From TrEMBL:
Gene3D superfamilies: Hotdog Thioesterase
Origin organism lineage: Bacteria, Pseudomonadati, Pseudomonadota, Alphaproteobacteria, Sphingomonadales
Keywords attached to this entry: Hydrolase
Organism annotation: Sphingosinicella rhizophila
Pfam families given in the database record: 4HBT_2 (PF13279)
Membership in a protein family: Belongs to the 4-hydroxybenzoyl-CoA thioesterase family.
Stored InterPro entries: 4-hydroxybenzoyl-CoA_TE, HotDog_dom_sf, Tol-Pal_acyl-CoA_thioesterase, YbgC/YbaW
Protein name (database record): Tol-pal system-associated acyl-CoA thioesterase
Length: 150
């Protein structure tokens, strides 16, 4: 274990696992996770999933190829996470489209689902318009598609 490297999640089968702990900064005055922070947790997990797949978002952005942006999100909050909880974000690919990917994410505390989200990540050209995803990335997504369908 290299303590000088940031934590990285990993795939278990087709599902990406990303663990994190709830810190004081994540909570509101009642000591529960502020609702918008679940979206931050999910974003970190999606970014980590792309990195684990071999997608270099930074290089794509810097080369002018394009970048992913959330076009739509639907989230159901089921139970509150609290200070010092250990959480696991599970991420699955539901559907790949020409210029977007549909992603299912669950924020878990043990066996409990705390939040359940469906995210549409659109691939955008530098001018902000939708653009076909790189073929290599689509192929990578296709290998992961289907596990998280509910």
């Amino acid at each position: 274990m290299d303590l000088n490297r940031p934590y990285q999640g990993a795939f278990v089968g087709r599902t990406h696992h990303f663990a994190l702990r709830v810190y004081f900064e994540d909570t509101d005055t009642a000591g529960i996770v502020y609702y918008a922070n679940y979206l931050r947790f999910a974003e970190r997990a999606r970014s980590d999933m792309l990195r684990a797949m071999g997608v270099d978002q930074r290089a794509a952005l810097e080369s002018g190829e394009g970048v992913y942006a959330v076009a739509d999100v639907a989230i159901k909050y089921r139970r509150p996470a609290k200070l010092d909880d250990d959480l696991l974000i599970l991420t699955d690919i539901l559907e790949i489209r020409a210029a977007s990917v549909l992603i299912h994410q669950r924020v878990m505390r043990g066996d409990e689902i705390l939040a359940d989200a469906t995210v549409t990540a659109a691939f955008l050209a530098p001018d902000g318009r939708p653009k076909r995803q790189p073929r290599l990335w689509v192929d990578m997504f296709k290998r992961l598609e289907g596990e998280g369908k509910t």
